[in-house]
TrEMBL record:
Gene: dinB
Listed GO CC annotations: cytosol
Protein name: DNA polymerase IV
GO biological process, one term: error-prone translesion synthesis
Native source species: Methylocaldum marinum
Catalytic residues of the enzyme: E126
UniProt cofactor(s): Mg(2+)
Reaction(s) catalysed by this chain's protein: DNA(n) + a 2'-deoxyribonucleoside 5'-triphosphate = DNA(n+1) + diphosphate
Length: 377
């Protein structure tokens, strides 16, 4: 983990503080070359090679993403595939497998939800987490980010970069600082100093056209932007001028918005030694299921859907699911179905490194609920 350091405070002095008395704790997670990294993980022959996901050398398609080996040749996302081929004729072009990317993204999102319910997914490979209220790691957002990165690597064999700060803008700036596999903290007292040195084209939300207009006004970096009066910014950029005015002062009050309701609750565990005994696997699944059922009761929910997740020792992931007519009352209702779903996998014939269970088709509980339902645990 690295923390951004500045040589001196400059004109901002000690006033470079968060806009609130108790700063928020925001983590931005950005997977490293996500689609390309998944392809290199699943197909060892691609490792170490310049990989381009999306388009073909002779098509009009564009690059969805590319590996870091390809980026060394100047290839970038959204670039025409034909141009990418001219930059690197030896690049390997592969078709996107969005079903696989979505499945991996769901694994990563499940990790996020163990830290906070306030998760805003920007895309399959990028999300903001508001961990202000979390008491994990004694409330240390940097230690949470470290653990998230560790768990992502352990679960998916992929790396992520993390940025930690007191608002979304600076958290995203931080996550870009030390890619790949980086972790950077920008604390409140350094926010404005970081922005002051930031080239205007590096401001997220300022595209090429707006950058050109700002450069024409002599605005080349955050320090220049801060010196422009608000009325001038509004005159040239409309309502967005107010946003730019706040950003230059380290102020970004946009909330982390959970952009979809939670449709399932689950838990999973990765074993230090691969399992080969189905009875031991079933015992672990039962423990996971009991814990999730208790959580559902705590939130006044019940479920009719059950999914078992199995990841084999070669990292192949499979799921098996069933929906029943009546909500599960307790773990005794769930055990037979767990055994049935596990038997529909190759667990036992193949070693297993991860097991998971999730409950779906959620409904509000009718009438009072109590944890006595789970006395059989």
């Amino acid at each position: 983990m690295s923390s951004f350091k500045t040589g001196r405070a400059g004109a901002h002095g000690s006033n470079s503080v968060a806009p609130t008395r108790h700063p928020r704790k925001i983590i931005h997670i950005d997977m490293d070359a996500f689609y390309a990294a998944v392809e290199q993980r699943d197909f060892p022959e691609l490792r170490g090679k310049p990989v381009v996901v999306g388009g073909t050398p002779n098509s009009r398609g564009v690059v969805a993403t590319c590996s870091y080996e390809a980026r060394a040749f100047g290839i970038r996302s959204a670039m025409p595939a034909a141009h990418a081929y001219r930059l690197c004729p030896e690049a390997v072009f592969v078709r996107p497998r969005f079903d696989v990317y979505r499945a991996v993204s769901a694994e990563i999102r499940a990790i996020f939800l163990d830290f906070t319910e306030q998760v805003e997914a920007v895309s399959l490979d990028e999300a903001y987490l508001d961990v202000t209220a979390s008491r994990l790691f004694r409330g240390s957002a940097t230690r949470m980010a470290e653990d998230i990165k560790r768990r992502i690597r352990g679960t998916t064999r992929l790396t992520a970069s993390a940025g930690v700060s007191y608002n979304k803008f600076l958290a995203k700036i931080a996550s870009d600082r030390h890619k790949p596999d980086g972790l950077c903290l920008i604390p409140p007292e350094q926010g404005r100093a970081v922005i002051a040195e930031l080239p205007i084209g590096a401001f997220h939300g300022i595209g090429k056209a707006t950058e050109a207009r700002m450069l024409a006004l002599g605005i080349r970096c955050g320090r220049d932007l801060e010196q422009v009066p608000l009325p001038t910014l509004i005159r040239h950029f409309g309502k967005a001028g107010e946003y730019y005015h706040r950003l230059a002062r380290g102020i970004d009050e946009r909330p982390v918005v959970s952009n979809r309701p939670r449709k399932s609750w689950g838990a999973e565990t990765t074993f230090p030694v691969d399992l080969s005994d189905p009875a031991e696997m079933l015992e672990n699944l039962a423990g996971l299921a009991a814990g999730v059922l208790k959580k559902l009761v705590r939130y006044g929910l019940q479920a009719r859907g059950l999914t078992v997740k199995v990841k084999y020792d070669d990292f192949e992931l499979v799921t098996r699911a069933r929906t029943v007519d009546r909500p599960f009352r307790d773990i005794r209702d769930v055990l037979p179905l767990l055994a049935e779903l596990l038997a529909r996998t190759e667990a036992g014939r193949r070693k297993v490194r991860l097991l998971g269970v999730s409950f779906s088709v959620l409904e509000k509980t009718q009438g009072p609920t109590t944890l006595d339902l789970f006395a059989a645990d």
